[in-house]
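Mods, move this if it's the wrong board.
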Amino acid sequence: MDLARFEWPSAVSSTGAGFLLSALLNVLLALGIGLASSWLSSHDLSALMLLLAILGGVLLWQSLQLRRQLLFYGLLLCWGAAGALFKAEYLPSSGVGLSQFLLVLPLWALLWWLQHRFPLERPSAEEIVGPEDDEDKDVPTDWISRFFTPQPLHPVSVVRQPLAQVLILLWLIGFGQLTVYLFNQGLTPAWPWSAAAGALATVLVFGYFQSLIWIVYPPLLLGLGSILGFLGGMNVTPALFSVAAALYALLSWLLGVRLLNQPLTSRLARALYFVTDSKTNRHTVEQSLLLCTSLIAGFAVPFSLLVGIDQGPSAAPLMALVVSGLFFGLGAWHYRLSAQSYAVLATLTIAVWLLDFWRDTPIWVGIGQASANALLSLVMVGIALMLEQRPTVITGRFNLYCQPLRTVSVVLALLAAIDVPFLMYPLLGFVPVSWIDSLTLLIAGAALLLSTFGRLYWSVLGVFLVTWAVYGLASSWFVTPWPAYSGLVLSVLAFTEATSANYLDYRSERWDALRQALYVVAGLAYGIALLAAVLSFLQGDSRLPGLLAVLSLGLLPLLKPLETAPFWRSIGVASLLTALLYSLATLRVGPISPYGLLIAIVWGYAFWFVGNTLIARFNTRWPFWALAEAPCPGWAYWLCYSVLSPV
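Not the wrong board. Structure tokens:
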């Protein structure tokens, strides 16, 4: 029968409608009798299945003749119930979804044939229901005749939508059974075959609905599940699962890109009605393919790390990391995506961590990991600087790694700084335990400075880490942790950092962030050194004069950013030198109270002489550290008199 040219009268008579209704009622009555007999005798369901099949056939005939989708839904319900009874009678075991996936194949083939035979035909009402004759037209008045009057629908339009809904329903049932079976029974030999059939069925289902975003994810995941299921049946080690997943992602991406680039693939997709615009849909499928394979390879990386930590040294985790890194590297090279570059660096970092964990001679907890992170951070930022200095003609594709290298270097430097163990030490609080820890902190700070060059807050953190590391190295030489020692080291560091910042004042603006960071950390170190001087004074430490002398010198470059720097330098230097004189006087053996006023007068005249003779020469020689001439003598005389006169 040619469905496209089948003609039917515009209406049926009451007698014809009655015959049609009688046929339907007779089959329904037979079905009721069959249900009753099956209820009384539950051992034989073959008669009931036969009745359901016959009722479905009657509904199929009536739905095609009357163009009623409701009748076709009844057909699907009857045949679905017959299929369920058949499975319950002859296949009572719990299914793995294979039968549903296999039923998808002929159903999709039928839908494809309908779409190929009647692609976009929309026949007119005259072609479907026949020519109208106003004189002989018999308009039905009762509901029975109206129901059995043919509708102005093409027969294909009657069956296409219900069949498509059954297609997606079968896929959902099969996928649900496959998932439930996996959780209940595990990876049995039947599960991989069902997963493979599910992958094929998924491609057909989502291809029919032209949902190209999801035409990649479920098939690839089901294919991976089938491969892992076969490997699980072979009792392979868990480490090989990560290798298989990484290889599966790499080969799937390579094969998928290769197939998408073939003209035959686009022609086949159009022949199967999967796509309409091959160019746009190809881009969508390739994006989905890259994302899905990246997720598979991404999960293989931490899984290999966990397996390597749990099972000890083995070649399989490293092989999985190498394959995953190769996949991400090829993806970054092909698409020039920064996300793939980050994935390559993350894989490399995890491989270094795993090798550090497998060392035969472990050092104290945290040291090896922190050192590895610091060195890797410095190496990465060094590579980034080399790539930025090279001509872009040579490193056009490798320039994509510059920013990821800097970002990962920052993360590794922070991890190295966090992992370094510390000990309590006066003034600065925590210091590294050993010189190795201090060196690790120094490398981390240097890498952080190079990675974030030009960013103020990161530069402050980098300079602070370097200062902290140098302070830790110097503290390791102290036999007794006196505050004067700490203050001396910090004051020297403050002087060095402030002097370096003074030098950068005359450089270009690109050094502004580092210059400001040096001033900030130098001010912090100088403040702690002043606190050390106060503590040394309270303890009566004999090393206090040397500390005050270095503090006086460190004040010169530190105050350069101030507009009134010469004035405050004079005040600060005079105060510190007066405190130095007082500390020397108090440390002198014997009473000095008769000489307090005399010392104050001599000290004031000494400052007057320096202010009138030497300061001018000093300002001429070092103008950027200039001192104010006026405040020095008077301020020094008053300060010295007020301090030393009671002595």
